[in-house]
Design a protein that fits this description.
Layout (H helix, E strand, L loop, with lengths): L4 H8 L5 E3 L7 H6 L7 H12 L10 H14 L6 H5 L10 E3 L10 H9 L6 E5 L2 H15 L11 H8 L2 H4 L4 H11 L5 E5 H6 L1 H12 L8 H5 L14 H4 L1 H13 L11
Parallel strand pairs: 1-2, 3-4
Helix pairs in contact: 6-10, 10-15
């Protein structure tokens, strides 16, 4: 969550060996193993209406685009939501090497979920992105308040109120990199799992993409500068309060130590 996956999704969608569904975050395995309300009928209907069935101008809209949307939405709204449902979301029109599923919630899957996924894949590669813990938390807090139309609350929150909010499980659990790394490494083979850093993505995006492609054993693709430079899914531009880093300083030190205990060298910027 808030560690660059939307940008990565938008860029990698240009690679000819990678196949994506219309929906970036399907969350199927989270639904199957953690919270079976994630893909309820009501939730899928809402997503379909909001994102894929908007009103359109018949004089200006490409019929092929509407046809593709309708075909995919029919699969997305089908029942039951099971492994066959999930498979049918990937139509593989060009015979790409990988089907790609981006979900920030998969970081919370139990080991048995990964074992199930691996047992049903010809080839499984899992990428996990991490970001400076303080900056990620602040971005997550802002983004959640932004999408729930409550951004104005930041103007009045005391350190205590901020602390209470950021410690809510749906935000804080995404900060526990050590726990997540240990859980995923316990369930996935070494050559099938790779952690990456948001800071490397921002510092040299083309080198970062090349590392991803090497991990996936794919040829390097020449992405356009426009795609590389595009800003996506940004949080509101609000300065971090001076008191914010201190609220989590002890946790950040612990989390950083846990990541390094996994043999992973964190970016130098994490120490500032």
């Amino acid at each position: 969550m808030k560690a660059g996956t939307t940008w990565l999704y938008s860029v990698l969608a240009q690679h000819p060996e990678l196949h994506f569904t219309l929906e970036k975050e399907i969350h199927y395995f989270y639904h199957a193993y953690v919270n079976n309300r994630q893909l309820s009928d009501a939730r899928r209907l809402t997503i379909a209406q909001d994102r894929y069935l908007p009103r359109y101008n018949p004089e200006r809209t490409n019929p092929d685009r509407i046809r593709v949307n309708l075909h995919w939405v029919a699969n997305y709204l089908s029942r039951p939501v099971d492994d066959l449902w999930y498979r049918n979301l990937f139509t593989r029109p060009r015979g790409e090497l990988y089907n790609c599923d981006f979900s920030n919630l998969y970081a919370h899957l139990p080991p048995e979920a990964w074992q199930h996924i691996q047992g049903n894949c010809t080839r499984l590669k899992v990428i996990y992105t991490m970001r400076h813990p303080v900056k990620r938390l602040w971005s997550h807090v802002k983004f959640h308040l932004q999408v729930t139309d409550k951004l104005h609350l930041l103007d009045t929150w005391s350190p205590g109120k901020m602390q209470d909010f950021m410690r809510k499980p749906f935000i804080w659990e995404n900060a526990e990199y050590g726990i997540i790394l240990r859980r995923m490494r316990a369930a996935l083979p070494e050559d099938g799992f790779r952690p990456f850093f948001y800071e490397d993505m921002r510092r040299d995006p083309r080198a970062f993409l090349a590392e991803i492609e090497d991990f996936l054993e794919l040829p390097h693709h020449d992405y356009s500068e426009e795609i590389i430079e595009r800003k996506v899914n940004e949080s509101a531009s609000i300065p971090m309060p001076d008191f914010f880093p201190e609220l989590v300083s002890e946790d950040v030190a612990r989390i950083t130590a846990e990541v390094e205990a996994e043999g992973i060298l964190v970016p130098e910027s994490w120490s500032s």
